[in-house]
Design goal:
This protein is an alpha/beta fold and 270 residues long. It has helices at 7-16, 27-35, 104-113, 123-126, 130-138, 158-175, 192-200, 245-258; strands spanning 80-82, 91-98, 118-121, 142-145, 182-183, 205-207, 211-214, 217-220, 232-234, 262-263. The strands form 2 sheets. Strands 2, 3, 4, 7, 8, 9 and 10 form a 7-stranded mixed β-sheet that branches. The chain starts with 6 loop residues before the first helix and ends in a 7-residue tail after the last strand.
Length: 270
Amino acid sequence: MRPLRGPAAVVAAALLLTGCAQSVDPIERLGKKAAEGVRPHTSAAGRGYRYWGLARPLARSPVRPARPLAERPAAGARPRVVDRVPTRDPVVFLTYDDGAERDPRFVDMVRDLRLPVTLFLTDSVAAPGYRHFARLRALGAGIENHTVDHRAPAGLPYAGQRAEICGQQDRLRAGVGVRPRLFRPPYGSYDATTLRAAADCGISALVLWRAALTPAGFAYTHGPHRLRPGDIVLVGPDEPAGPPLRERTARVLRGAQEQGLTAGRLEDYL
């Protein structure tokens, strides 16, 4: 995500720099999950898990049936705010912000590993490359809302927040062919007005994160300093000088595997 200045930067740093992951060797647990029906991925293109920097195959997440219509939020209901999903499934959710990086090899990685990912796009950053994100969507990636101009919503008037959220709904429909249900407020900034504006734009959930990849390793906003089932992970930082997106993704996947976890599709759970 883009750098934030002033007091908000202090808050963001405190949230994202709370600690590093602690790992437990989970090889036996992974084998047990495989026996329970979580099957390994294989690459149709011939590029397996080692090619993408993994030490062992990426387990396939359990197939989760669609939520019945009766369980879905009613139209206009205030969105819930989540940073993890309550589930016993051995999954974490990989999320990406802004859309500045458009590496074709990341598309190959998603295709080869059949990797479920969710991208929260900002129009002012991602718009020149919507064709790239359309290719990812065709592979099953979730395309979700991250505002038009990446302004921190909290404190803005209703009209301004609605323009940022609804405006990006329209742009993503035109550019990628999807009108999102999920919204990530820039910098994790939101207030009651954000929830009202998001509901009016058709959003059903505000998606934050419990874990984030930083240059120093995993950091956690609260709770144990390790990945747990249902954690939403922000694969950061989005910096031009940092490692490529595919390398950061492999680092998160290795961390998940060390905890006996795999990647799940966020849209199947929200």
